[in-house]
Amino acid sequence: MSLPRVAVVGAGTMGHGIAYVAALAGCEVALTDSRADALPQATARIDELIAGGVKRGKLTHDQGEAVARRVTIDRALDVAVRDADLVIEAVVEDLQIKQRLLGDVERVAPRDALLASNTSSLSIGQLAAGLQQPGRLVGMHFFNPVHLMKLVEIVTHPRAVAGVADRAVAFARQIGKEPIVVKDSPGFASSRLGVVLGLEAMRMLEQGVASAEDIDKAMELGYNHPMGPLKLTDLVGLDVRLAIAEYLHAMLKLPQYEPPAILRDKVKKGELGKKTGKGFYSWSD
After folding, report:
1. Mean pLDDT for the chain?
2. What is the DSSP letter of 161?
3. What mean pLDDT comes out for the span 25-50?
4. Is the pLDDT of residue 50 over 90?
5. Are 253 and 128 part of one and the same domain?
6. Half-sphere exposure of 148 (CA within 13 A, CB side)
7. pLDDT of 262 above 70
8. Residues 201 and 176 in one domain
9. How far is the C-alpha of 141 from the C-alpha of 190, rounded, in Å?
10. Distance (Å, whole) CA 9 – CA 77
11. Secondary structure E strands in 66-187
């Protein structure tokens, strides 16, 4: 099966990571973002990932240069997506913003291109509702950091046409990921479970049950989690975790999804995790 031409819309933490792993697998990738500063930052982060791979002996110097050449930076959305076989949206976790963007993408992407959203919790059916061809949208939920995390959650919805999920599954496997297929439901499988664990860890910290380090160590050593829920929240972003929790609480009406005060307070103070240097941990060193 030939590798698809991929366009990634949104060059933040998830977008540049998706672009990197697709290029690493051999795909030609166009990366675009409407924010003026996002693309240079994304290019620098991709270069860092390539350099890290070369340093660890995972890539040769020539292979690293080839990966870099396969990523094209395009400021204009229409230029980035016009030849794509697959367009992956990876912008902020906001239903209206994603709906507008996907509508813009649909107008300029090839009619047979597969459209995917990297949302971690929003309804794929709702995202598809405003499209002229809602059946070609699928959820493709990658995990942070994209180059290390193996899982991709493929999310279907009732109006998806036959074969859409299969195309997404095939692509995930082509780039070395392990896909699971889930039905459209608030939080899908991963966020619905993961958010509960993260919020409960925050409540424990808030109540003084244990330090952040020891709460995380309990899950790492006691349950064989590769990373504790508080450190993971720092990597994901406290603002992102808050938005997901608020959405799930509104949709599911269950008390376990009510964001605790410590999360709201940290977001209000701008302590968003690794990207700001401080969250539940200090990342300034």
Report:
1. 95
2. P
3. 96
4. yes
5. no
6. 8
7. yes
8. no
9. 9
10. 8
11. 71-73, 86-89, 114-117, 137-141, 151-156, 178-183
* C-alpha–C-alpha distance, residues 122 and 253, integer Å: 15
For residue 55, give the CATH number of its domain: 3.40.50.720
* Gyration radius (Cα) of the chain, Å: 19
Please report, as a single letter, which amino acid is at residue 276.
T
Token digits for 81? 């997506």
CA 55 – CA 51 distance, rounded (Å) = 6
159 and 220, same domain (yes or no): no
pLDDT in the model for residue 203: 98
**Is the domain of 47 the same as that of 14?**
yes
**Residue 152, SS3 per DSSP:** strand
Dump pLDDT digits (tens) for 89-146: 999 989 999 999 999 999 999 999 999 999 988 999 999 998 999 999 999 999 988 9
282 falls within a domain: no
Structure tokens that stand for 246 in this block: 């608020």
The sign of the torsion formed by the CA atoms of 271, 37, 149, 172 equals positive
